[in-house]
Specification:
Arc Repressor Mutant, subunit A; Histidine-containing Protein, Chain: A; 4-stranded antiparallel β-sheet; two-stranded antiparallel sheet; 6 helices; WH-like_DNA-bd_sf
Length: 183
């Protein structure tokens, strides 16, 4: 199989998969090394394909989805509640990032779509595999959330606001993230 055919096959597999696909699984299926898959993913990204890396594998971001960035603040104990609001309304949490006055923007890919994803994330945090980025900024952080429509994003925004999770923007923040409504 030629490289271009293999990359087409990767895109097709990602489009048809409901779950993330690991580099090792793709490599085995396509008869190449995992490193070849990593290189193929880099090329696919350079070609404009929105392939996201998650802790469980690769997923293809669907560009027809609406997207919005929410600035939030809450405790670590409230992560489950915040994430549940988002996924229960039909949203996907693409990432978490913080804007630090000294370090700039620090971002981590999440791709949380379900309560199972939430539990897996919280388990990793509990087991000390990582710490939430919000620790670097006293609980303030941002999430890029995608959904099938702006109306779903509006509903998510209203529910986050009802729970007191939405945070006001500060003068030093570089952009009004709430004004973004699609990718």
């Amino acid at each position: 199989m030629k490289a271009a055919e293999r990359r087409d096959a990767i895109i097709k597999k990602l489009k048809n998969s409901a779950e993330p696909l690991s580099g090792a699984a793709l490599a085995q299926e396509l008869g190449v090394s995992r490193q070849v898959i990593v290189q193929d993913i880099s090329i696919l990204r350079a070609q404009g394909n929105e392939v996201l890396s998650t802790n469980r594998g690769y997923v293809l971001q669907h560009s027809e989805e609406a997207s919005r960035v929410f600035k939030v603040i809450h405790t670590e104990e409230e992560i489950r509640k915040e994430f549940s609001i988002i996924v229960d309304c039909g949203g996907r949490i693409r990432d978490e990032f913080v804007y630090h006055k000294v370090y700039g923007t620090m971002r981590g890919e999440l791709n949380i779509r379900s309560r199972l994803d939430i539990e897996n994330y919280l388990k990793q945090i509990r087991e000390g595999q990582s710490r939430p980025l919000m620790r670097a900024t006293s609980g303030y952080h941002y999430h890029t959330v995608t959904a099938e429509s702006r109306e779903i994003l509006d509903m998510i925004q209203n529910k986050l606001e009802e729970c007191g999770f939405l945070a006001p923007l500060q003068d030093y923040e570089p952009v009004n993230f709430r004004s973004q409504s699609s990718l």
